[in-house]
Amino acid sequence: DTAVSQTPKYLVTQMGNDKSIKCEQNLGHDTMYWYKQDSKKFLKIMFSYNNKELIINETVPNRFSPKSPDKAHLNLHINSLELGDSAVYFCASRKQPGPGHEQYFGPGTRLTVT
Amino acid sequence: GQNIDQPTEMTATEGAIVQINCTYQTSGFNGLFWYQQHAGEAPTFLSYNVLDGLEEKGRFSSFLSRSKGYSYLLLKELQMKDSASYLCAVRDQDRDDKIIFGKGTRLHILP
Questions:
Q1: Residue of A nearest to B46 (CA)
Q2: Chain A interface disruption, residue of B35, B97, B107, most A CBs within 10 A
Q3: What are the DSSP calls for B42-65, one per residue?
Q4: B-chain residues within 8 Å CB-CB of A6?
Q5: Which residues, other chains included, contact A83 with Cβ-Cβ below 8 Å and sequence gap of 6+?
Q6: B58 Cβ contact list (under 8 Å, min separation 6)
Q7: DSSP readout, A44-66?
């Protein structure tokens, strides 16, 4: 009964390829996020969706495109992968925007671009 | 602007007490979170403070002073399993309710 799941866990690919990471949560939460954690362990927000609607879009190259088919899923598609995209990508969910309500994180997807 | 500062690394001894500090500057503030992250794993929630004062939860306590833009996480009776990174995160209500993370403090526990 995993709360937030991501696939794949590891992804190794070459520069220039296009790849997708999938995220699903079974907590009934309304809000979902994508974070990027670089080699220095800095966790940086990329996108946030609330009930399938994009509410946060940080300064991220437009090669990154999130998609939320329903409020339980938030996928991340990356075009034309670059070396600098190598990182761990975490999906997270939260009950709703507003006070309190901690985030629940998925196990992460370690992306290596060669 | 937004800025969250934490020490990069700390070392403490098993059984001791350690305090991890966090200072923040954000355009809007509506709550501060502490998360624990073991190497190779996802962050997990530890505590949440929105009002000034101390919140205690077992061996872990978290303190907040909004006027000083300051928080700390206090870990008592340290165990080897407490070796992890500790992330301070602030909810910035002026930035679309974004939760902004600090760079984390890596805590090493020595036997």
A1: A102
A2: B97
A3: --EEEEEE-SSEEEEETTEEEEEE
A4: none
A5: A15, A113, A114
A6: none
A7: EEEEEEETTEEEEE-S--TTEEE
What's phi and psi for A59, nearest 5 deg?
-75, 85
Would the pLDDT of A113 be above 90?
yes
Q: Is B26's pLDDT higher than 70?
A: yes
Residue B111 has pLDDT above 90, yes or no: yes
Nearest CA in chain A to B85: A41
Nearest by CB: A105 against B30, B43, B97: B43
Q: Is the pLDDT of residue B96 over 80?
A: no
Please report, as a single letter, which amino acid is at residue A72: A
Chain centroid offset of residue A108 CA: 8
| Cross-strand partners of B23 | B5, B70
Give the gyration radius of chain A's Cα atoms.
Answer: 13
Q: Is residue B68 a contact partner of residue B53, using CB atoms and an 8 Å limit?
A: no
A·B CB contacts under 8 A = 55
CA B50 to chain CA mean position, Å: 13
Confidence of residue B30 (pLDDT cuts 50, 70, 90): confident
**Six-digit token pair at B111?**
């036997």
